[in-house]
Structure formats: structure tokens, C-alpha cells
Design brief:
seven-stranded mixed beta sheet, globular, disordered C terminus, alpha/beta, 11 helices, 3 domains, binds flavin-adenine dinucleotide, D-Amino Acid Oxidase, Chain A, domain 2, FAD/NAD(P)-binding domain, 411 residues
Length: 411
Amino acid sequence: MGTVHDIGVLGSGPSALCIASALAARGASVVLVAPQPDARWKPNYCLWADELPAGMATLVERSWSHALVATSSGRRDFARSYVKLDTLRLQAALSDELRAHGVDVIEDSAVDLEHVEDETRIVTASGHATPARVVVDATGGGSSFTRRVHARPPAFQTAYGLELRAPGHGFDTDRMMLMDFRPAPVSSKEPPSFLYVLPFDDERVFLEETSLARRPAVSIDLLQSRLEARLARLGLLGCERLGEERCVIPMGLGLPTAGQQVIPFGVAGAMVHPSSGYLIAHVLRKTGPVAEAIVAGLAAGGRDEALSRSHAALWPASQRTLWELYGFGLETLVGMNAKEIDRFFSSFFDLPIDCWAGFLAGTQEPSAIGAVMTRLFRSLPVLIRWHLVRTGLVAGAAPLARSVLRSGVAG
Ligand SMILES: Cc1cc2nc3c(=O)[nH]c(=O)nc-3n(C[C@H](O)[C@H](O)[C@H](O)COP(=O)(O)OP(=O)(O)OC[C@H]3O[C@@H](n4cnc5c(N)ncnc54)[C@H](O)[C@@H]3O)c2cc1C
């Protein structure tokens, strides 16, 4: 067995590279273990411009000054900027940082973690064991290393997208379409899905059919057939296809338990926003504080201190409550039919922008989000209110929702 690194990071997705480079930049010795550390990232990673950390503007490939939302009750046009990161430049920039800080990379899959005294041995598929004082698990939704407070199957966001060369496509290049709930021209509207559109320029456009959250997942094939039907209606079916995106995001994974021997991060760490499926902004926001907590913890008291400080940085009580509250939101969305979801988002996006933006951000106090949910509840049609109440009873979320909603109303 070789050198004992301060930190072993499992994975080579955005979460792994962000945390590994932040740790190494703080002087820690880091080893990264992943089966394909150089595999190119393909997703179109997007976030709201106001959630982009300072200093990352150079990694933005495209921004839109406005975001649109369409439902059966009309089209809303929000003056809030949305950005798409340049995926390859983001990956290259983080990889450069790893190299600059001397991070060791092992091309292998972790298959087991042996926790012994004050180190963890990362056992890989090839049979080697790499010791580290503490291990960060960023192996994504299929992680087998993180213990969770519940083992309920997650819901899934699934999507099928195509980037087209489509001169004269007709979409306004200053406006991206966040959600268009007007149904695709297919025989059944169920299960619900919506169209997401990123018009890159006058020639190139990305269109994606998305199922927000379903358990079990809506099949990619179904979403593809709906997207094809929309393209046919838009006259874009014959356009050159420049790229394809298949998206599967687990939502509502059980939160990591306290006191475990690894630090779960990213999708593996249940950091995906349980009601929206977004993750990147949250990872970027948490990377610095968590890296700081790990390094300071190792210096102050060793591995246990690093584990407990990083857990505190990731999951203070308010964040846990917030995620549980969003989990309630997720359960309501999972059970809605197309008409209900259309009505729900009509009301959601009719809230003042601060309210819905705050809800989507995942950074506010539970009481503030409780107040937004109360306000939303009151504005919903009776049919949807009943759906929410029923879901609350079935999901056992009523006590949590009641307590937070009450504090939200009071506040
Ligand atoms: C197509 C797509 C589009 C998305 N778009 C957005 C978006 O616009 N905005 C947003 O906020 N979020 C988006 N997401 C959600 C989320 O940001 C992504 O899923 C993101 O890639 C998650 O990063 P991650 O590093 O946590 O996990 P992953 O990217 O899933 O990376 C997991 C890593 O772990 C490695 N690994 C797996 N098993 C092992 C093992 N046993 N040992 C070692 N390594 C292992 C894998 O090889 C991989 O490198 C999108 C997701 C998808 C799939």
C-alpha cells in the first residue's frame, strides 16, 4: 500500500472534480479514483445567472436575458437570466486545477471501503487498496457507499433532447423556454411532460422533452416520440441533428445519515434539489465551505473531526428540514396528472418572482419556503389542493408540512 493521502475522492463527474480541486487548492493531498477519469462530460449544465459564483463567468457558453414558462393559462416572460455552462471548458478547467495541484488519479472503480483506525482503504476492482484519511463519495445516484436515512426508491427526472442545426427555427434567441406544458401533439397527455428549449443562435437550437419527476421513471423512448411529434409540428423534423442528450436524474434519494465514515457529495449525497432536479448551483455553492471544513477538521482533530465538520457544513438542521419539505413537494408532483401539473405550475409561476425563485434556489430558511408553499396552496384550484392534502397523508409528510407551514404563516 502506498502513501496515505489526506482525501480520497471517488468519481470524476462535476461534483468530484469541484471538491477535489477545492481540497487540493487548500493544500490537502488528494487522490481521485474513477473508472474513466477522462471521459468527456456531455450534459448541457445550466443554472440561473444569479446563482453563478463570482469568477465563473468565463465558463459560460451562452446566456439568455429572459426565461419563458407556458401553460394552458398563457405564456409568462421573466426578466431573469439563465446560463449554460461550457461543459468541456468546465471539465478542462477543473482537470487543469487537479493537475496543477498534483492530485493523483487512479483509473479504477471503487468496489469497497475498509474503514480501519484512522484511515479508509479504497479497494478497487483491480484488487488494489488505496489508503486515505477521509473519503468523499461522489459516485452519483448509484452509490453503494453512502448510508441513507431511508431506502425509499427515488423518483426520476428523465429527458430526451436534441441539438439541431435549424436555420430560421423561429425561437427568440434572447429567451429560453424553461417549461412549456402545452402538450405534445400525441394521442395521450399522460404521463405529463414539458418542452425545454435553448435557442443558441439563429441556426442552432436545443429542444428537450422532460418528465419532471415520476416513480417509476418515464421512459426515454416515450419522451423521444413526444419530442419528434413536436419537431414535426414545428417543421423541424428534417433538420440536421448535432447532438443528443439522454437525462436520468434520481430525485428524493434518502439524505445521508450523520456519523457515517464517508462524506457523500453531489448526486450521491442527495444534493439534487428534490423538487426541481437541479444540482450544479448547489454543488458550486457548497464546494468551498465543505472543502474548508474537511481540511480544517483534519488539521484540528483528524478524520472524525473532518467527517463531523463536513456533515455540519453540508447538512445543518435547516437544510435537512428544507430538503424534507421539498421531498413533500416532490411526492405531490410525482402523483399529478397532466391537467393538475399544468394548473399547479400556472399558479406557481404566477407567484411573485422572488417567491418562486427562492423556492427553486434551495437556500432559504424552511419557514420562508413554508410561507411560499402556504401562499401557493391558497392560490391553487380546489382540486389540486385536495391532491396535495391526500399526498401529504399518504406520504406521511403532514406533520412536517404542518409544522413548517405554521412557522411560515407566523413569520
Ligand atoms: C443529461 C443531464 C443534464 C443535466 N442538466 C443539469 C442542469 O442543466 N443543471 C443542473 O443543475 N443539473 C443538471 N443535471 C443534474 C446533475 O447536475 C448531473 O447529474 C451531474 O452530472 C451530477 O454530478 P455528480 O458528479 O454528482 O454525478 P455524476 O455526474 O453522475 O458522476 C458520477 C461519477 O462517479 C463515477 N463512478 C461511478 N461509480 C464509481 C465507483 N464505483 N468508483 C469510482 N467512481 C465511480 C462515474 O464514472 C462518474 O464519473 C443533469 C443531469 C443529466 C444526466
